[in-house]
Specification:
By secondary structure, the chain is of the alpha/beta class. The chain has eight helices and 22 strands. Helix 1 packs parallel to helix 8. The longest helix is centred in the first third of the chain and has 18 residues. The chain binds S-adenosylmethionine. One of its GO terms (molecular function) is rRNA (uridine-C5-)-methyltransferase activity.
Length: 406
């Protein structure tokens, strides 16, 4: 057993402590806490497992939270840790010293999530799956989910559905909820789906479990609607249970409003990793043409539906891989909002070759963001603005809104 003092929070949500054998990564210990656990070497790094906190921080959050909540501190204490995570990634990885704008807190620290997934417990009801494990913990309630999901959860707890997992997507705008049933048989689930829509769900889809991820296999609508309308600050857009949409719409709305103050206008704008193209639709009045590239068919379908509903004529969706952006030529502004892996080498090369005047980079992983910002800075771009946003209170996750220009 090893006893250490956690020094700081690092990307991935680990606490970092130093020992004579080098740095050790701790899950479950917060900066300032003395913890004890079993040191294990994995993938070339030292981890502490089976962690027991010997001296808890006085500002630890005193109420129950789901296992995914790896930052269980009073809300105000979470924000400086997240800010430091972004500042340090920029210094250590991008080798840039830049004054970050102060972190924007989430409009609601609790009850903010409009999407969630749970496993079915074999003894009935719903359960959390412990991170990186198969262990299930019975779900009593989830204080992180928004009001429409709370009601849906209470209802689902009492339904003996023959599935592996359920996924929920709610709307704060309409109060409605969509349900995804993962696993089991779509034929058997048709009747319960109809009954669940009668009980108040707006629609139910079935998805085949896939090793590639949720909703990456076959998806079949069972009953009711497939999308809901949600508000993201200046825009209303469709969301579904099957493809990506931000889970904290008011926080995303604040980011979108700020993003619009950062970018100019011009002839051509491109959004890569566009989802349903929220930013493209907002940029449409400022550019002659806007191209939005997204890999998910379902997200592109929603984007097209939103474009038509909003009467936007100059946004074109391209379903495909961002790494093929070179086919679309050069743009005045390129917006990127990639998954945690950050930009692919091809996208970095594309940006450095075609040299858009402005790059708006929305990031959900500070480490890969810093890597990409460092590469763009070496290629002649300057970081002009960077602000962390808290979309995920009580977790280590942090978004960054940033602008680079030549
Ligand atoms: C963080 S989300 C951002 C979506 C959008 N900006 C929003 O806020 O709703 C990343 C998006 O990138 C898409 N994506 C992932 N890999 C991609 C790739 N190689 N090429 C294009 N899109 C990709 C995902 O399907 C997802 O919609």
């Amino acid at each position: 057993m090893l006893t250490v003092t956690v020094e700081k929070l690092v990307p991935g949500g680990y606490g970092l402590a130093r020992t004579e054998e080098g740095a050790v990564l701790v899950k479950g210990g917060l900066p300032g806490e003395v913890v004890r656990g079993q040191p294990v070497r994995r993938r070339g790094a030292l981890f502490l497992e089976g962690v027991e906190v010997l001296t808890p921080r006085p500002d630890r959050y005193p109420h129950p939270l789901p296992p995914s909540a790896d930052l269980p501190l009073l809300y105000e204490a979470q924000l400086p840790l997240k800010e430091a995570l972004v500042a340090e990634a920029l210094e250590r990885i991008a080798k840039l010293s830049f004054p970050l704008s102060p972190i924007r807190p989430s409009p609601s620290p609790l009850g903010y999530r409009t999407a969630a997934q749970y496993a079915r417990h074999p003894l009935g009801g719903l359960a959390y799956r412990l991170p990186e494990s198969e262990v299930l913990v019975r779900l009593e309630e989830d204080p992180l989910v928004a009001e429409p999901l709370k009601k849906a959860l209470a209802l689902l707890q009492t339904w003996p559905l023959p599935v592996e997992e359920v996924a929920l997507r709610g709307s704060l705008l309409t109060g409605e909820v969509l349900l995804g049933l993962i696993g089991g048989s779509p034929e058997v689930l048709k009747r319960p789906a109809k009954a669940l829509v009668r009980e108040g769900f707006r629609g139910v889809v079935w998805a085949e479990p896939s090793p590639k991820g949720r909703f990456r296999g076959r998806v079949t609508p069972l009953y009711g609607e497939r999308t809901l309308l949600e508000r993201f600050g200046p825009l209303t857009a469709t969301v579904s249970v099957e493809s990506f949409a931000q889970v904290n719409p008011p926080a995303m709305g604040a980011l979108l409003e700020e993003a619009l103050t950062l970018v100019g206008g011009g002839e051509r704008a491109l959004e890569l990793y566009a989802g349903s193209g929220l930013i493209s639709l907002l940029l449409a009045p400022r550019f002659r043409e806007v191209a939005a590239v997204e890999i998910s068919k379902e997200a592109v379908r929603r984007g097209e539906a939103d474009r038509k509903r909003l009467g936007v004529e100059n946004v074109r969706f391209h379903r495909g891989d961002a790494k093929e952006a070179a086919r679309l030529g050069a743009f005045d502004l390129v917006v990127v909002d990639p998954p945690r892996a950050g930009l692919s080498p091809e996208v970095r090369a594309y940006l450095l070759e075609t040299r858009p005047r402005q790059i708006l980079y929305v990031a959900c992983d500070p480490a890969t963001w810093a890597r990409d910002v460092g590469a763009l800075a070496k290629g002649g771009y300057r970081l002009r603005f960077a602000q962390p946003y808290d979309f995920f209170p009580f977790t280590h996750h942090v978004e960054v809104l940033s602008l680079l220009s030549l």
